[in-house]
Amino acid sequence: MSVAALVALAHDVLITVGIYALSGFEVTPATVTGVLTILGFSLYDTVVVFDKVRENTKAMRESHQSYAQAANLAVNQTLVRSINTSIVALLPVGAILYVGAVQLGSGNLKDLSLALFVGMAAGAYSSIFIATPLLVHMKSTETEVKLAERRARARQRAAADPYAAVPARGTGKPVGRRPDDDPVADEPSPKPAPSRTPGKAPAAGRGRVAPPAHGPVNPSRAARRNQPSRQTRSKRGKK
């Protein structure tokens, strides 16, 4: 997480310096102050997103999510907060930039507000679209993250095709299941229980086994009685 946050900070500084080079503004001590301020603002926004990522990925086995899905959920949960915070911070800074550059022509206000405005906008962008995807890419090589990814893919495949886990006819292995779906898929599957009825094979290929018969079926006594017949509505109730 620290490496991804440092890369996001370098992105913010590069964008701010590039805007300064394009605008032709003079670099003053106020500019340095603004750059240091935006570094703290961007790092704080990145820490908020990463804290939500850490909270969502704490129990991936219980949540049945991959690391990428948990990180995407964290970004969605903090996206509105990041946008609102950035807009509220950019409005007064934009007003200061307008007053310093157009109304008063003050160099210190103009340099400070330009660095703050560009850096805050770049910081809100980098914490969501640069720091978090880079973190997911770096974590994708870990063994635990790979296992969580396999479990998530197996669950998605089972949800897409509910009949994929039905045993094939004459075999005990599910149809469409691959060895990479689950880390324990390479273990031999248990053999189906033999049928109690002699001379009949257990019903396979439909997801269940028919229960065996405990004895011969005798005719019921109620079959010898007179059964009620259906009558028309006009004849009902008449004796």
Could you please describe the fold and organization of this structure?
- The chain has a domain at 2-141: Multidrug efflux transporter AcrB transmembrane fold (Up-down Bundle).
- The protein is 59% helix and 0% strand.
- The protein has six helices and no strands.
- It has helices spanning 2-23, 29-56, 60-63, 67-103, 107-139, 143-160.
- Helix 1 packs antiparallel against helix 2, helix 1 runs antiparallel to helix 5 (107-139) and helix 4 packs antiparallel against helix 5 (107-139).
- It is elongated and about 110 Å long.
Task: Looking at this protein, list some descriptive labels.
single chain, 239 residues, mainly alpha, Multidrug efflux transporter AcrB transmembrane fold, 0% strand
CATH hierarchy, class of the domain at 2-141: Mainly Alpha
Distance between the termini: 89 Å
Radius of gyration, in angstroms, nearest whole number = 34 Å
| Major sheet attributes | none
How many individual helices? 6
Number of strands: 0
Helix-residue proportion = 55-70%
**Could you tell me the mean pLDDT?**
76
Looking at the structure, what is the overall shape?
A: elongated
Structural class, by secondary structure, is: mainly alpha
Which stretches of 5+ consecutive residues score pLDDT under 50?
Answer: 179-188
How much of the sequence lies in strands comes to under 5%
CATH level-four homologous superfamily name of the domain at 2-141 = Multidrug efflux transporter AcrB transmembrane domain
What is the H-and-E element order?
HHHHHH
Named at the architecture level, the CATH assignment of the domain at 2-141 is Up-down Bundle
Tell me the CATH topology of the domain at 2-141: Multidrug efflux transporter AcrB transmembrane fold
